[in-house]
Amino acid sequence: MPRALPPLALFAALALALTGCAPASKEVAPEPTAVAVPFESEEEALAAAVEAYARFVEVGDSIGRDGGLNAERLEEVATGELLKTSLEGLESWVEKGWRQVGAAEFSDVTLQQFWDKGVIIYLCEDVSAVDVFDATGQSVVSADRPDFYYFQVSFEATDGSLLVSGRERWREHC
After folding, report:
1. Domains in the chain: ranges and CATH
2. What DSSP element (H or E) covers 45?
3. Residues 152-172: pLDDT tens digits?
4. What is this structure's pTM?
């Protein structure tokens, strides 16, 4: 049986913005870039990251329950290559008729680092209550899928808020 993970486990790596040059005679608006989010303390940076990740999980679970439809909702909570890869992965959910039941949770969040344009945290994600079913109603989740994943999650400050820009397995167990 194929192994499937909740939509959030389909997300991958980092963000990169490109800017171009324009002729001097034309007025051109600048490309959007990361906007500094001034954190006063580690606690403030961690709280902002936890809030942003909670929204990311909520949106990802909602898209999974909708069978991958309207996956562009991820643009509200993710950015860069992670967003691109996630949207591509969710297209296959629609094609295969997959649908998620249940919701992921996370805990044991620790701050790795923060700076004016981003944050990196570690967390334990619990997918034990998540299952994915195909169009016939059969689970596509492998029986030996771990219930917990330990991730390093990166955030980029964009338009004054944090967006998830990367997520990778950090350790085998939480």
Report:
1. 7-15+34-171 (3.10.450.50)
2. helix 42-65
3. 999 999 877 899 999 999 887
4. 0.79
- Give the whole-angstrom CA distance, residue 116 versus residue 100: 36
The SS3 call for residue 160 is coil
pLDDT at residue 12 tops 70? no
Angstrom distance (rounded) from CA 21 to CA 8: 36
Q: What is the DSSP letter of 75?
A: G
- Contact (CB, 8 A) for 53 and 123: yes
Q: Yes or no: say if 99 and 20 are a contact pair by the CB < 8 Å rule.
A: no
Q: Are 161 and 47 in contact (CB under 8 A)?
A: no
Q: Report the alpha-carbon distance of residue 99 to residue 67 in Å, rounded.
A: 4
CA neighbor of 165 nearest in space, from 130, 128, 119, 132: 119
